[in-house]
Amino acid sequence: MKLMKSTLAFAIGAVSLLTLNACDDKQPAQNQQSSTSTQSDASQGLESKFVTIATGGASGPYNIIGTTLAETYSKVFKTNSKTQTTGASVENINLINQGKVEMAFVMSDVLSDAVNGTGNFSQKLDSVSEMAALYPNFVQIVTSGKTGIKTITDLKGKRVATGAQNSGVEVNARNLLAGFGITYNDITVDYLGYAEAADALKAGKIDAAFLTSGLPNSSLMELQQGFDLQLVSIPADGAAKIAESRPYFTPMDIPANTYGNKEPVPTVAIKNALVVQTKMSTDDVYKLTKQFFESLPALATAHQAAKAITVEGAQEGLVAPLHPGAEKYYAEVNGQK
Q1: Alpha helices in the chain (DSSP H)
Q2: What Rg do the C-alpha atoms of the chain give, in angstroms?
Q3: What was the pLDDT predicted at 337?
Q4: Which pLDDT value is given to residue 60?
Q5: Would you give the DSSP letter of residue 281?
Q6: Residue 208 to residue 187: CA distance in whole angstroms
Q7: 226, 184, 190, 225: which is closest to 211 by C-alpha?
Q8: Cβ neighbour number for residue 52 with a 10 Å cutoff
Q9: How confident is the model at residue 200 (pLDDT cuts 50, 70, 90)?
Q10: Are strands 265-277 and 208-213 parallel, antiparallel or unpaired?
Q11: What is the end-to-end Cα distance of the chain in Å, rounded?
Q12: CA dihedral for 116, 118, 119, 122, sign (positive or negative)
């Protein structure tokens, strides 16, 4: 009887051991499958662990669009993507050159200076490459109705906010003023960003301000409430003359009813650009470019200026070398047409 019990116990133990081993045999297969799946997901990601996007002031289109783009990159590529609020174009290009950010929004006039070693840049920079030409930035010179300022030439002798120091706004403000025979010696300059300039106008601390951005500018939309906001014109003939030597300036109108203005107001526009570190891999920039254009509906929801971005337009008006990754994407898109 003892022998039978021992034999039975041995048999049960053997079956249990075989069952356990069978389960163990299946477990590595499950782990292997999980590992393969993870590896597959990772292959869709980026080589770079970080994608920091330099933008501009907190209330500007750069920051609003950039924040949505960074959130999309984080979600799609499982990478650490975020925005960095900055003084905009000049600072952004310097951050790219220093390797502190991977991407940046900049104005084409500043980008042109950077690759040609002019203006704020003492030498040509080859560390920055263009990914896409974006929507036009409209030079919006604003004042209050009581100042009597109608055109850019009326700014002489006035206190004017020309944008944050060394920002794209400040660079094009200086160039435009010079084109109409006005230097910084002829005005009292305040270096103020969008929100600060709007607050200073409302408080009567300045006479006028340059806010160069996509339309509409959220700071001006807020300022318009309870403030007699007036747009200052840049005469088309003068703008056309300036564009002869600075082709990134394009004479355009701010449409009627943008800020309650009954008629279109003549000004100039400068295309924005999305730039990346030249040293980023072709594969990474290809993926970033592709996802950028696939995300346009979400970007346009974040800020309506992005509605003017198109794949076709992104290849026009380039002022810096196109990154090979972006070039690969455009070749692929153009080949599909």
Answers
A1: 2-43, 61-77, 89-97, 108-116, 168-179, 194-202, 218-223, 236-245, 282-294, 296-302, 311-314, 324-336
A2: 28
A3: 57
A4: 82
A5: -
A6: 11
A7: 190
A8: 17
A9: very high
A10: unpaired
A11: 86
A12: positive
Nearest-angstrom CA–CA distance, 243 and 248: 7
Cα 158 from Cα 182, distance rounded (Å): 11
* pLDDT exceeds cutoff 90 at 93: yes
Tell me 47's DSSP state: S
- The whole-model pTM stands at 0.73
Three-state DSSP at 58 gives coil
**Residue whose entry in the numeric block shows the structure tokens 């337009």:** 313
Residue that the structure tokens 């747009």 belong to:
231
Phi and psi based region of residue 323 (left: phi greater than 0; alpha: psi -120 to 50; beta: remaining) = beta
DSSP state of 249: -
Assess contact for 144 and 293: CB atoms under 8 A: no
**H/E element holding 253?**
strand 250-254
Least confident among 68-77, 163-172, 323-332: 163-172
Return the bridge partners of 103, or none. 53, 276
Task: Calculate what percentage of the chain has a pLDDT beyond 90.
Answer: 73
SS3 213: strand
